[in-house]
Amino acid sequence: MNRDVAEPPRWAHWLLTRLHPSETLEEVEGDLDELYAYWHRRAGKKTATWQYVRNVLSVLPPFVRRRSHEEEYYQQLSPLHPIMIRNYLKIAFRNLLKHKIFSLVNVMGLVVGITACLMILEYVSFELNFDQFHQDVNRIYRVTNDRFQKGKLIQHGTITYPTIGKTMAKDYPEVEDYTTIVGTGRVKLRRDKSLYPEENSLYVDEHFLTFFTFPLVVGDPKTALKAPNSLVLTESNAQRIFGAQPKDYASLLGQSLYIDLDTEPFRITGIVKDVPAASHLQFGALVSYETLVRTWGSWVKDSWEGSDMWHYLKLKPGQSGAPVDATALEQKFPAFSERYFKGDKVSGSVEKFYLQPLRKAHLYSDYEYEIGVVNNGKAVWTMLIIAVFILIIAWVNYINLATARSLERAKEVGVRKVAGASSGQLIGQFLSESVLLNAVAFVLALLLTLALQPVLNQLIGKPLSLAVLAGQGYGGSLMTLALVGIFAVGIFLSGFYPAFALSAFQAIQVLKGSFKRSAKGVWVRKSLVVFQYTASVVLIIGTFIVFRQIEFMRKENLGFNMEQMLVVSGPDLTRWDSTAIDRINSFKTEAKRLAGVKAATASVNLLGNRLPRTFNVKRVGSNEEKGVTVSRMGVDLDFFDAYKIKMLAGRNFLTTDSNPNGNKVVNAVINLSTVRLLGLKDAVSAVGQKFTLFGREWEIVGVVSDFHQQSLRHPIEPIVFLPFYANGGFYSFKVISNDLEKTIDQIQEKFQTFFPGNEFSYSFMDERFDQQYRDDQVFGKITTFFSFLAVLIASLGLFGLSSYTIAQRAKEIGVRKVLGASVTSIVALLSKDFLKLVVVAIVIASPIAWYAVRQWLDDFAYKIDVSWWIFAIAGVLAVGIALLTVSFQSIKAALMNPVKTLRSE
Amino acid sequence: MRRTYLGEFEEVVLLMVAILDGEAYGVTVSQALEEHTGRLVTFGTVHNTLIRLEEKGFVSSELGGATADRGGRRKRLFKVTALGSRALQDIQELRNQLWQLVPPNALKVSGL
User: Fold this and answer.
1) Rg (CA), chain B
2) pLDDT digits (tens, 9 = 90+) for A412-428
3) Domains in chain B, please, with CATH?
4) pLDDT recorded at residue B2
5) Where are the alpha helices (DSSP H) in A618-716?
6) Which terminus of chain B has a lower count of CB atoms within 10 Å, N or C?
7) Which helix or strand (DSSP H or E) is residue A842 part of?
8) ipTM for the whole complex
9) Where is the Transcription regulator PadR N-terminal domain (chain B) (predicted)?
């Protein structure tokens, strides 16, 4: 009996169970027990115990050999094994094909999101990349100039006096180099008899080509623009005008061209590479600054009063690569102003100078008289935020839709687990499904972006392409890497949540049928839907406001009438002489005789354009030391009638008010704002008063009502109308005709007889004026597009959530129906939950939208009120869309035969 | 073409499995080793060798034959596979051939 109860030492046995590999524990334990009994029988307890301990030790690690798993038929492959990956992909493909509609909806959401994101990123990258091609971009600054009169800012501009750049370079050793630019805008280049209009020409000094990085193909950048009448053309202009190939460029040097009316020829001294689209300075031709001394006078070199120049400074690099300290230099500018401008003694205004970094010239410029291409930096960053949001919404949607199917997939997971799948393998399975889906979506999105590129580029008028993201845009190839990284991370993150949620199911619960998802998962999905709807509602409200503002601006009574007004550009190639005014008047009279022409008027400038300003205008008899600033416009005696501008007091211009010799013109008409600005009581008492302008006295002969001389973005300005004529001005014809083309042809015929050799170009005043709203309209289109996207994606998300929730409540619905619930009550019950989410989204979205639209509207001088009903409409719209989306599922569920859902119980 | 190497101890253990003919498991193999060769080795050595032999494909095993004196625990019973028996026969044959080559007097001399 003693033998039977003999037991090996407990501790040794414990050691064995703890340390021996589990695969062979059972057999080894048994074997050792048997051996113990055998030793005990043969040699007694002591030896047996000793032997037992010794042999236990021999089967512990590290001595023991590990039996490998049951390889042949129970092999657990690593989730990353190539065989497994192949399997994942195969299953993923089958799953996608099995649920075609679902996959389509899911891929569509992603494609739309990624495409939109790519397009916006192209745009943002392009905009941020402006002027980055200049070698010294971080050392180049532009001088900006604020002018104050009576402590009031009257000009916030980039133009300033011709001496500034030169003097600053001389006074401050920190300045390495400077360049001065005058923009002349549109010119006509003439070769033999042919005219070549060029929209952008600049007068630039000799430093320009070495200062900036605009490389010359032929010519010497140091000397090309030194001599007067030197001309540098871009490659495309060389091709256009001379039909030159790159190899012919050298032969163009020294050839002559004429510009506008100038009788002296201009000599080509260089061919410059075409200006990159991402440059705030755009030009097709460069003319040497010295030329201006001849045509404008010597003031362009030494004046402290006249100002039409842009100055750029290049600062010396800091000690051993330290950033350039522009602030330190800027702090010296008040002393500079005092030294040269002596308060407002010299120019009539107190001058303040600042340095604007070149890299901010494009996106962060709110200056008047801007030379370059500017864009709103705020808008660009807003776009970037929108892009990120759309991408997140798209991925969120993916998560939502993927988990929505979890009920269905749960059974699959259960069976897989029972069949021995590890959770690593399941995660691999679901991850590869998401990666596959995302990859398909990504490729489709790339193709879609390529396909839509021309449409986008036309819409926004920029030469965008995917190349901007592939190393040619902001940040170079770092940007590409970052993007690839973001997409990869996004794809994995969006795959992770469903993968973990799905693979965590308990096989037993699922297969027993008692499976219910946790409240936490539903909460996550609900907040995702709220997030999506919040974004949608904000965008819907934004779109409404943008369109209402545009409509308001276009419908608002401008104070003048531009309907059916045909605008013809004046003959800028005809020379001004003593008969010019007579010729202009005869042309007008002849035109007015045409059947379709009701009125004709000539003006130097056109409403809708930025009018030139004059400083230091003073009422005669006022004791004010300094004058005021007004805009001016040269018009003929028919102008106010033709445009239906109301004369409040005094008289219109008379023929005798004008004179070919400008110095003999002394009568002026002013608008009501000017009356107030000059400190006059009212329109009637203003008539007969005098003011000084251009250094001489003018008499006010009439007062007209105020009107919006520009878009409603701008406030109404004080304007002085002077009876001037100009050949390069504009003719406006009120055309009331059934045969518009014939009338235009007739006008053209008259134009050619009076002004032979000039180009006839016409447009319509209302279209021209509307051009000012082009940016806003583009913005409107873009917000509409994004609202549509956001709503579409959000609806997909809600669709997913509703189908999921309703599938879960199928039994409940069945019971309710059996107990007599009506279809309507069930639909209402099911929709209620989702409506709650949308209402929450509206509540969150309203203040965000309110803030955002206020920011946007701040840019307009005249704007609509942000009224509550816009929010109400957006809310109703969101609720409507949500109801529509949910009803599809809920009605289907409510109509279902309860037998189907209940019989399985 | 190199056949899987069979070590000396492995060969003896494999022969024990063959001798035990279906009754071979850790305990019986250890006891047979002691009984037939007089070698006392630890259980771990036998255990490891059996695993190695199985990995090499000379024996196959299955669990079974639980008895009360093992606390109801199953045994892992080993059988010689076709490959194992081929290996044993090859060794036997090789030895025979080699014996044939030994000159008749060579071993006697050394035996003296």
Assistant:
1) 17
2) 888 888 888 887 888 88
3) 8-111 (1.10.10.10)
4) 43
5) 639-642, 672-677, 683-686
6) N
7) helix A823-857
8) 0.88
9) 19-89
